[in-house]
């Protein structure tokens, strides 16, 4: 049995997908929503146009959702992740793997979601499923690709990863494996901040040239930071990095891009977030990403300007000017495709030797 914790748009979509593969229970924080899901087989709040299978059961009880679950899927916002996992921990089946779908970083601790899992519910496999996975398109059956990475105490858990790859794979949802848990998780979290920047440009009325520049330089920025934090460079060129970045920066369905667009239109962030029940992870992750960059000694100019607009009242026009007027430099300064290998031979940090400069 699979337990999916979180009945938002993505949690409901994933529960719908999994229900076709195995008995699945969807946990909703609100009893009223769980009751509606069971009676109407629709999520009235987050996915009202998509019918859910009658075999999918919903509950507001963690004990009921988790009793006997062989796989636990965490589809929760980062700010509530730890609290709910702590409440769930007494009900977890021993050794059941935990797969997180959350694309964010915990405030304060700056921990990734899997780091929280390892701390709160240790001694079990855990990992991440991530990629360019817009929930409405997955729910509608559009061909989609994703990537999964699972580790245990010994490192990459190939057997469990492959088993979960098969569980999540359908005719329209193709899942690849990747042994770089850190890179997969960071790619999904950091791209949300770049998507806010892309949305700001959209709101200011700019076009494809600007968007392409932000996506490309944003990829360089998240790769630089991700590698410094332990990710593998190639991961950021794959589904967890470039793929997710492109989808989130371009799609009209992207919550983070939408928030940026509203900022580019001159609206305040508090006004924007009060208008929707959806969580745009990039808002909180931006501050965490900036702090992670400072700790690692990595330049993050786009992240820095997004934080200034979100939290310091900086005008979008001034943020753009700050990016455009930075010191000129070669695009691939310090970068060579062979640099990571040479760095390993010389003892130089790969983050210095093999990633594009800011």
Relative strand content: 5-15%
Uncertain segments are 336-354
Distinct helical segment count: 17
What would you call the shape?
A: globular
Report how far the terminal alpha carbons are from each other: 46 Å
The biggest sheet, with number of strands, parallel, antiparallel or mixed sense and barrel status, is: 9 strands, mixed
> pLDDT average, as an integer?
92
Broad structural category: alpha/beta
Radius of gyration, taken over Cα atoms and rounded to an integer in Å:
20 Å
Order of helices and strands: EHEHEHEHEHEHEEHEHHHHHHHHHH
Binned, the helix content reads: 40-55%
Number of separate strands:
9
How would you describe this structure to a colleague?
The protein has 358 residues and is of the alpha/beta class. It is 50% helix and 11% strand. The chain contains 17 helices and 9 strands. Strands 1, 2, 3, 4, 5, 6, 7, 8 and 9 form a 9-stranded mixed beta sheet that branches. Helix 8 (181-203) runs parallel beside helix 11 (255-264). The longest helix has 23 residues, at 181-203. The radius of gyration is 20 Å and the shape is globular. 49% of the residues are buried.
